[in-house]
Amino acid sequence: MLKIFDNKYRVNYNDADFTGKLSISRLGNYILDTAGLHAMDLGISMQALKVRDMTWVISGLHFDFYSMPEINGFINIKTKISEYSKVTCKRDFFITDNDGKKIADVSSEWLIINTLTRRPVFLYEAFPEVGDLVFEKENQVEKYRHLRFNFLENARRLKYRVMYSDIDINAHLYSMRYLEMSLNMLGEEFFKSGRILSADLNFLSEVLCNQEVELVMQSPSLEIRQIEMRREEKPVFRVEFRVLSA
User: Fold this and answer.
1) Burial grade of 214 (CB within 10 A; 0-12, 13-18, 19 or more)
2) Domains, the chain, with CATH or none
3) In the chain, which stretches have pLDDT less than 70?
4) What is the pLDDT of residues 168-197, one digit of tens each?
5) Does residue 226 contact residue 200 with C-beta atoms inside 8 Å?
6) Is the Cβ–Cβ distance between 27 and 95 less than 8 Å?
7) Burial class (CB in 10 A: 0-12, 13-18, 19+), 12
8) How far apart are the first and last CA of the chain?
9) C-alpha to C-alpha distance for 50 and 73, rounded to whole angstroms
10) Cβ(91)–Cβ(79) under 8 Å?
11) In whole angstroms, what is the distance from residue 229 CA to residue 202 CA?
């Protein structure tokens, strides 16, 4: 079992946005894939947990973005478990190009839930070896911030119904679809001249197929974009982007 796991990816055409660089949501796919491969190496993959009526779910993410690679570029992702508590596990990612130049640093927080009750289980019951696999506590990526917003009346709003293509193996809205829908709220014009410096994501509740959600966005300053997803007026997801605009 490897305490530090690394993997390499090539940026394909369908991984890039209109700027010709790796899109943020595709980078998110890469880190989740790497986390899954490391979990498989540790014997705690989705498949291994499924037979015990358990699964991994993500509760938060923090991204620091430096320089996104272009099409045909390569990215190297290293990941480790850096912290754990009774019910949560923090996993960090360090992403570079072939020359060692930083692309992004990412931290994530995970928990294991019972798929029958949809409630968290104690981490050490599902994963008793976790304490032996925490690596380099002093070298960590910043943890995601817990977000709360006060929206103004003129906040932008958009409704969306979750469909088959939006859901994942856990039969709920895929975590990167929350992010993609939030990026869509920023719009093409923003990405023509601006870029995202960092992001904090809070996953608050499951969203299932055929449920309708509403996204609400405001810009309390030139450097901040706040987006909340709601189902029946209750928040299910929040993200705050720190941006650089032209």
Assistant:
1) middle
2) 4-133 (3.10.129.10), 156-244 (3.10.129.10)
3) 135-138, 246
4) 988 999 999 999 999 999 999 999 999 999
5) no
6) yes
7) exposed
8) 46
9) 35
10) yes
11) 10
